[in-house]
Amino acid sequence: MTQTMIGVIGGSGLYEIDGLEGAEWTTVDSPWGAPSDAILTGRLDGVAMAFLPRHGRGHVHSPTTVPYRANIDALKRLGVTDVIAVSASGSFREEMAPGDFVVVDQFIDRTFAREKSFFGTGCVGHVSVAHPTCPRLGAACITAARDAGITVHEGGTYLAMEGPQFSTLAESRMYREVWGADVIGMTNMPEAKLAREAELCYASVAMITDYDSWHPDHGEVDVTQIIATLLGNADKGRDMVRRLPALLGAERAPCPHGCDRALENAILTAPGARDPELLARLDAVAGRVL
Ligand SMILES: CSC[C@H]1O[C@H](OP(=O)(O)O)[C@H](O)[C@@H]1O
Ligand SMILES: Nc1ncnc2[nH]cnc12
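That's the S-methyl-5'-thioadenosine phosphorylase sequence above. Prediction below.
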């Protein structure tokens, strides 16, 4: 048994959480650069918690410039075991309405201008992301959201786009009708892939703010409309997060889905051919297997 530490990555509109005992903003140094912000640490119902605003307080980082590797490394370095990503998202489904939450379980990664792996020349690693989210953690989010009175949808495919512009109407229709995506956002990739490389359980909660641009009755998405919905969603998100420690507990058994063992047999580079500088940077993420 290890100790649970829940890491919450707060998206647009969710820049802090309340109610943590011993709350403190901690600056974490990472060999992958500076994280988006300091990390709020503390305890809730006897469980260690860490909260990181994805875009930084004051919304400084764009979806492209969020330091995804530093963020995941910093959470791992602090001792986080389970990451809950909370993200403002557009909906491609009539029934996934603004104000609803969707616990996402698949992704289509259309991002192209971001560093997507901790591995590379001198230490090549390949992890599976066929099932990119942790079902155990996702189930806890579903229960927590339901207990908080939120309309929550179980499962969905999140299209991760580069942004920062929203989609064209043709793209919106293609993602929905041809590709079968359910929700859209700009940040869950490469975050989910990096969490898997770091052997962290990862669950994604999409807080629906809009119908993107496909819906004939809702016109095109704009940020004013998103912000209006986002403020109510952020309160709901905080309510969901407050319920997670009691559901997950302070003691943690190995992940039944193997998220915490994702690197076993993943590294191909022969020990003698590995780059010592890269190995040093991988200390937190992959130290267990190096
Ligand atoms: C505020 S509109 C677009 C912006 O909101 C989402 O951010 P996050 O995923 O961090 O909640 C979306 O991905 C865009 O970055
Ligand atoms: N329609 C949308 N497209 C991309 N990211 C979003 N975040 C919130 N709504 C979005």
